[in-house]
Amino acid sequence: MTASVREREVQTVSQERKRRTRSRTISRLDPIVVSKLPAHEYDLDPACISLVCPSCRTWVPIRVADTERATAKLVPHHTEQAGTEDPVRCPGSHRLVTINVTVATWSRRLEEGISETNGRRADRVIRKPQPMPTPAVMQIVGGLVDDKTARKLHEAHVKSCTTCSATTPRCTDGRRLAHLAAHTQRTAPLRRQRQTRQEEQADKRAWALRLLHDQQWKKVAGPVHTTDQQRVRDVLTALRKTLNTPTKPGARPLTTWERADLETTIAVLERQEKDLTHRW
User: Fold this and answer.
1) Which pTM does this prediction carry?
2) Residue partners of 21: CB distance under 8 A and separation at least 6
3) Between 280 and 84, where is the model more confident?
């Protein structure tokens, strides 16, 4: 009696079984070869073997059974958010996976990729440029007013101010205008020299552009002139033909105003043709 009870207890206790793939379904797509994928698109960590599904470009776990005839394939998945009603299954579900890369090789590839990425990054820290100190008001005005204008402003202020004299400025405006007149007088030679240099550079630049334009025009002047003459001749031929050709039966003849207009246009084109011939 005791033996039968023990046997019943042993039979009712669940035993640990080897895990295997629950579904025998296999995708019709070609198997995924891990060695052909970039190292950053698959993970061979034994804790969670996964890769990026080529169909939906999302990370999907790889199910590998512990049996001898085990086949690795992607778990069933869909591309919608979790909890979506009637989700559409990804065509990459149950797709076979050929794992022909060892964990050591995969780790080495990752390290090489990280080292290459670090090598492409600049090690130098680019500092944010510090703001330049704001120039004084006299420095700003000094660049806009020449020495003669500054002297006239100072003289006009001395004449109208009751506290300033010709030799000793006493008010705030008088001192500022006196400093401005002295500063512009001191920097006047340098300013004139700089202005003369800028004008010479502008003249040289304009002369170089004009010379370049003349050289470029000489290369195409002949064909352009020939094309202009031919265009005028073609228009003249067409207008003369319209004016001198007899009217066909049933067609409306030209009126007096239309004939006068054609003759005027022909005269203008003949004068233009003559000008083109003599000009060249």
Assistant:
1) 0.35
2) 63, 65, 70, 71, 73
3) 84
